[in-house]
Amino acid sequence: MSDGEKNLDLSKLVTVAERADELSASVVVSVLEDAGIRAVATGGFTSGFRAEAPGMVKIKTFEQDADRARQVIAEIKMDPPVFDD
To answer: For the domain bounded by 13-75, which CATH number is listed?
Structure first.
């Protein structure tokens, strides 16, 4: 096992964002991956349940990438584009 593999074994995943549905979470994961940050969305199966406290889809990255991931997420514009006629 290489040192890089050992470091990954010791890495901890942390939640850097939450979204209400799998589609929104997938967009965030894709943006993070485009920025070179490995990310995963968890909790998609339970996010659709409608109980007193609906579930959220969590976006997780390795702990050492969390700050950078949060910066990338903060830069995402979720507003629809404005078209001039």
So the answer is: 3.30.70
